[in-house]
TrEMBL record:
One annotated GO molecular function: aminopeptidase activity
Entry keywords, A to Z: Aminopeptidase, Hydrolase, Metal-binding, Protease
Keyword Signal annotated: no
Catalytic residues in the record: E208
Gene Ontology terms describing biological process: proteolysis
Cofactor requirement: a divalent metal cation
Binding site for Zn(2+) 1: H66, D176, D231
Family: Belongs to the peptidase M42 family.
Record protein name field: Endoglucanase
Amino acid sequence: MDTKELLEKLSNGSSVSGFEHKVNDLIISAFNNHADHITTDKLGNIIMLKKGVNNHDPIKIMISAHMDEIGLMVKYIEDNGFIRFTNIGGIDPRTILGQEVVVHGKEDLFGIIGSKPPHLQEPSEIDRAIKMEDMIIDIGFPKEKVLELVNIGDPITIKREFKTLQGDRVMGKSLDDKAGVAAMYESILELSKLKHEADVYFVATVQEEVGIRGAFTSTYKINPDIGIAIDVGFGSTPELQKGSTIDMGKGPGITIGGNIQPGLRNKIIEIAKKYNIPYQIEVTPGPTGTDGRAMQITREGIPTLCLSIPLRYMHTSVEIIDMEDLKNTAKLLAFFIASITRDNLEGLLCY
């Protein structure tokens, strides 16, 4: 399976926070021929170990990308069969009205999100954004049939098919952060061509969108020497301030800020320059809001890096990335990992 094919299957799949197991088999199957050992922990994180050549005193490097996605959840079923719902993770209600959805009940059920037509709205309602609690999902069945197939708490995803745009750009739902999982896959392929001392733990984490939970528990379990989070950053569009975004097609964003260990940051920039891998600087003065935040403050503290794949229209169902950015992220990771040895690690971690 190539990386783009994996990303397409992940994007079209369903892995709402708390229900990530629906893509477990896909991820494990993809990594199985390239990892030395794969386990799933009690919270649901998938930990995939690729061993290095230093069997005596191996360094442990943890790479994480969250496999969960934002979504919806069944909250109540009306007498007329309409489904009331709430959000799981950060969803902007303005982006979901009129969308097609899949209700993941006893079987996958197609539906649409509707609300009061503008013709019937009061004058005071016309200029206001419709709230999520005023929307319903219509799957076309009466209440009796809905109750046979749907339970309170069932997850719901927006129905959207992964598509290729012009050039190297692709569109789909939940590329935040399935693009990161795909980058880990591309990176393990790159690492198979290189010699590396470190044991590398690739972790597809759960529940990032609802509190960075999987990264806390998996980092505690692994206790790595270095932690690297792969996530997405705000891809530049005309209405966004330049200093708050990173450009599509110009490589990953390397985060600078309090969450990031400066010696490691300098090293990964050095590697990018050495191998002519394009990169950008992403300024994040406080916590990154990624798995990197959890890594940094687990146990006695883990020296941490964060790489961001530029992504447009974050937390909508039409997120866009450039596949070259994903591949350059993976390449940078692989060459950085290969550069870390027991001899240079201590110096890199000094402040």
